[in-house]
Amino acid sequence: MDIYVALLSVVLIAKPVIGFGIDPDYEIDIINELDFANAIYGITQVAGLHNNSKAFLFRDVGRAVHAPAHITEKVVKLFRSKSEFTFLASIQQKSSTSGVIFSIHESEHSYFELESSGLREEIRYHYRYKGKPRSESFPYRLADGQWHKIALSISATHLLLHVDCNRIYERVIDPPQMDLTLGSGVWLGQHSHKHGLFKGTIQDVKFIFAPNGYITQCPNLNRSCPTCSDFLSLVQGIMDLQELLAKMTLKLNYAESRLTQLESCLCERTCSANGVVYRDKELWVEPENCRNCSCMNGVVECRRIFCPPANCSEDSLSVHVEGTCCKKCRPKCTYMAQTLSEGQRLLTKRCTECKVTTDPSLPD
């Protein structure tokens, strides 16, 4: 029973527990911060999914719902300093329509854009990667005239898409470009002036620059304790671990018995080098490689032969001799201001060869 408690405790401790509180410096309530001065003819405040926040009906007329400069500056700063964020919104989109829910772009370059296509029944996320546009499409019908809560979370290359508190897509993508410029525009319900106009009601639009920001929209997803189904899965996992442990114990016992048998066997380990088998601690010389070698417990160990100083006399020269590893002293001679050793040849116009001899009758 103790192993059940121990393993269950490990699993529960390893499971992340996320708090409900979000630092207000990392949360932007888009609707409260947007500039509606130019959009009075295109939007109307209406009742939303609930009465805790403002909801606006976006009509199919000219409008320009965007953030003021100081909010854009805050959004740009947070994008530059953070590697993960979550976009949240509650929407009621007119059936079979298409439009942009939220957009951050400069000129025609979209840094972040969430679009719902009622014609193709899919959600599209547009972003930039290394200066090039990227898009991710998720088959899902949002434009059905019903209220939906949507949460798109980005963490480096990891994308999570929740709809109505259900994780419907999880995908690895290229890391989005986060170095937004101050010239970027922050728009709600449209891509820009008169483009990508959303038709329907939008409420609770937020940007959360913190891990797992979707928890603020769906707090029930923050489960610090396992459900009954989770507990049964954990119990099954522990039973599988116990079975594996029993098998490993049998194998370990067998390995220990074999090791005991091997330790009682007086077996000499040999070495093989260049087609020759040597006994343990046997020494040999490899003249072609100028090495002294030995067999140590089945492993060949070689060291380069140590050559002492030649200490040649004044009338001799230290030179390499074919077939030996160390330099030897050989008689020397001087010809045309060059010092040569015995037998060394020097090509001249007369094709002469220096040869040291002790016979005074012979020329040097």
Alpha plus pi helix count: 4
Number of strands: 21
**Fraction of residues in H or I helices:** 10-25%
Q: What spatial form do the alpha-carbon principal axes imply?
A: elongated
Largest sheet: 8 strands, antiparallel
Question: What is the terminal-to-terminal distance?
Answer: 100 Å
Assembly state of the chains shown? single chain
Strand content: 35-45%
Overall radius of gyration: 41 Å
Order of helices and strands: HEHEEHEEEEEEEEEEHEEEEEEEE
**Would you tell me the structural class of the helices and strands?**
alpha+beta
Q: Which stretches of 5+ consecutive residues score pLDDT under 50?
A: 1-19, 360-364
What value does the average pLDDT take?
A: 83
Structural write-up:
This protein has helices at 2-14, 30-33, 69-81, 228-263, and strands spanning 27-29, 43-46, 55-58, 84-93, 98-106, 109-117, 122-129, 132-139, 147-155, 158-163, 166-172, 185-188, 200-208, 271-273, 276-278, 283-286, 291-296, 299-304, 316-319, 328-335, 338-341. The radius of gyration is 41 Å and the shape is elongated. Strand 10 (158-163) and strand 11 (166-172) form a beta hairpin. The longest helix is centred in the last third of the chain and has 36 residues, at 228-263. It is built from four helices and 21 strands. With 364 residues, it is an alpha+beta fold.
Topology overview:
Elements: H1 2-14, E1 27-29, H2 30-33, E2 43-46, E3 55-58, H3 69-81, E4 84-93, E5 98-106, E6 109-117, E7 122-129, E8 132-139, E9 147-155, E10 158-163, E11 166-172, E12 185-188, E13 200-208, H4 228-263, E14 271-273, E15 276-278, E16 283-286, E17 291-296, E18 299-304, E19 316-319, E20 328-335, E21 338-341
Antiparallel strand pairs: 1-13, 2-3, 3-13, 4-9, 4-13, 5-6, 5-12, 6-7, 7-8, 9-10, 10-11, 14-15, 16-17, 17-18, 19-20, 20-21
